[in-house]
Amino acid sequence: MKKEVNYSNEFLKGLWDINPVFKQVLGMCPVLAVTVSAINGLAMGLATTFVLVFSSLIVSLIRKIVPNQVRIATFIVIISTFVTIVDLVMKAKFPELSKALGPFIPLIVVNCLILGRMEAFASKNSVIRSLLDSTGNGIGFMLALIVLGSIRELLGNRTIFGFQVLPELYTPMLVMILPAGAFLTLGLLMGLSNWYVKKKEQEEIELIFSGYRSATTLNTQTELN
Amino acid sequence: MTVERSDSLNQFELKISPHLHSGWTTKKVMWYVNLSLLPCVISAVIFFGWQQLFIIFTSIFFACGTEALIQKLSKRKISIDDGSAVLTGLLLALTLPPNFSLWATAIGSAFAIGIGKQVFGGLGFNIFNPALVGRAFLQAAFPVQITTWTMPNYSIDSVTLATPLAAFKFDKIITPLSSMLIGNVGGCIGETSGIAILLGGLFLIAVRIVNWRIPLSIIIGVFIFGGIFFLIDPMEYPSPIFHIFAGGFLLGAFFMATDYVTSPVTAKGMYIFGLGIALVLVIIRLFGGLPEGVMYAILFMNAFVPIINRYTLPEPFGLRK
Q1: Across the interface, do B104 and A171 touch by the CB < 8 Å criterion?
Q2: Which domain does A107 fall in, by range?
Q3: Residue in B with minimal Cα distance to A199
Q4: Who among B101, B107, B143 is closest to A174 (CB)?
Q5: A18 class by beta-carbon count within 10 Å (0-12 exposed, 13-18 middle, 19+ buried)
Q6: Spatial CB neighbours of B184, under 8 Å, sequence gap ≥ 6
Q7: Which chain B residues contact residue A157 at CB under 8 A?
Q8: What residues of chain B lie within 8 A of the CB of A175, using their CB?
Q9: Cβ-Cβ contacts under 8 Å, B115 against chain A
Q10: How far apart are CA B291 and CA A104, in angstroms?
Q11: Which chain A residue lies closest to B144 (C-alpha atoms)?
């Protein structure tokens, strides 16, 4: 019997259901360190997505010929190849951004999100599914970084993507672009997302329960009739 | 089945234990502490003008507002009448510089209650002193505004705009003890007057709300650790007396370190806690980049309270073999 594969779900799950930042809580180092501004978040997200997608492609292609004992080393070699490409391209084309992100671009090699997706998904699934999964996870990661970066940039520097949003009257809160601000923002956002998930679950339970209740009342009514 | 009671039984009230109660409820304690801060509020008005009342009211209003809002959202009983939110707001306001911007006060106050207290589950569950969490946030968020000092009224020396601690640290000027006792020196609105704080603090010790062990051990600790450096080089390091009356030391020792929730419960633990605060305080004041370290010293030791409690638990009588 062939397993039913839902392709759109493979892609969509990375955006919310298993969002790398809010649900898997992976790759916290770049999440906390580079999200001083929205543009940094976007650049980091794009770089990570690129590495994730292409490493996934290669790893799922060679998944049947890699011996189990050396798989981690193989993954790291593949990942670092793409990280080197990203690093050199950024240095050549966007020197300022590359300087702003500093050592965090080379550090994508050890981003546990990427190795996690290789180990948990790409090394066990077909090429198409791996591509969809890695794209979804990469975009989910990028969106989370942009949200985090925007909030911190807005409160710490009055701007989003360099455009001034808040009036001069607002005194920027310096703490938001310091490391403490990253922890506060991430913690509050994570709390908010957990609260939302719990509320949804509660509503679902409530829905099932009310359906059950109306069914039983209907039954008793028919019995009475 | 019903239980018939004779008339003589009905005159007894049925209650569960504990049967002996000191009469101190959370509410009563909190309002007594609020009352004991009144001298500080008065000294703030005398030395920095009645405008400081706006800071105090803003801080209290937003502390209570945040508490009520979060308790309403999380469908808990709204308990702003127990005075703990008022106390947090009041303490936070007293540790702010004169003429601090009101909206920043509001943010700090909401942060103190929201992140410092309600995130952990409300009164009794917070790890860190909420007022100091708010103060630390404001220090990190607005580092320039929070170190902008205004000259106090009745100041004898009109040149020194800085606080006694900053004056010593950067210019080696020693502010006279009498000024620090009265309060006509630069500083946060509620911390300058030694007499006003001692009045409230000793009142709290007298009515046994505050355990004397904590303030005493902090003061002894400052005498030990500060005294060692003073004896080594009296020109380079200030005397322990100066340490005690300068900056927010007294306010911290009497009102913040003694917070029931965030201080140890055992007698031995209280001594360790107090000595620890004194050590961290002296290190920050003498060798740190900041002139003042009371806030960080207390927050730092707050983090150790669970472990102190755990290792200083008294052994029940007869258990030892």
Answers
A1: yes
A2: 7-203
A3: B74
A4: B143
A5: middle
A6: B47, B152, B153, B154, B155, B156, B192
A7: none
A8: 137, 140-141
A9: 184
A10: 35
A11: A174
Count structural domains, chain A.
1
Residue A213 lies in a domain: no
Q: Are A48 and A27 in contact (CB under 8 A)?
A: yes
Q: Is A53 inside any structural domain?
A: yes
Amino acid at residue number A158: R
What's the token pair of residue A75?
């993954």
Whether the link from the prior residue into B18 is cis, omega within 30° of 0, is yes
Q: What is the mean pLDDT of residues A186-209?
A: 90
The per-residue DSSP string of A106-151 comes to GGGGG-HHHHHHIIIIITTS-HHHHHHHHHHHHHHHHHHHHHHHHH
Q: Please write the tens of the pLDDT for every residue from B57-80.
A: 999 999 999 999 999 988 889 988
Which B positions 104-163 lie with beta carbon below 8 A of chain A? 104, 107, 115, 119, 137, 140-143, 145
- Write the pLDDT tens digit of every residue in B121-146: 888 899 999 999 999 999 999 998 88
Ramachandran region, residue B21 (left: φ > 0; alpha: ψ -120 to 50; beta: rest): beta
Residues of B in contact with A180 (CB under 8 A): 140
Residue-wise pLDDT for B141-166, tens only, equals 999 888 888 888 877 665 556 788 88
Contact call for B141 and A173, based on CB within 8 A = yes
Helix, strand and coil in chain B, % to nearest 5: 60, 0, 40
Å from A53 to nearest chain B CA? 38
A169 in contact with chain B, both atoms CB, cutoff 8 A: no
CATH number of the B26-311 domain:
1.10.3430
A29-54 residue pLDDT tens = 889 999 999 999 999 999 999 999 99
Work out the minimum CA distance from A204 to partner chain B, whole angstroms.
19
**How much is the pLDDT for A218?**
66
Amino acid letter at A170?
Answer: Y
pLDDT at A1 over 50: no
Task: Answer whether B129's CB lies under 8 Å from B85's CB.
Answer: no
Decide if A209 is inside a domain.
no
Please give the interface size between A and B, counted as residue pairs whose CB atoms are below 8 Å apart.
Answer: 19
- Among candidate residues A45, A12, A24, the one with its CA nearest the CA of residue A148: A45
Q: Would residue A151 count as lying in a domain?
A: yes
Distances (CA, A) of A30 to A25, A42, A65, A142, A148: 12, 12, 32, 11, 11
CA–CA dist B211, B209 (Å, integer): 6
**Could you say which residues of chain B have pLDDT below 70?**
1-12, 156-161, 320-321
Give me the residue from B119, B140, B145 closest to A180, CB to CB: B140
| DSSP notation for B219-275 | HHHHHHHHHHHHHH-TTTS--HHHHHHSTTHHHIIIIITT-STTS-SSHHHHHHHHH
Residue B210 burial (C-beta neighbours within 10 Å; 0-12, 13-18, 19+): buried
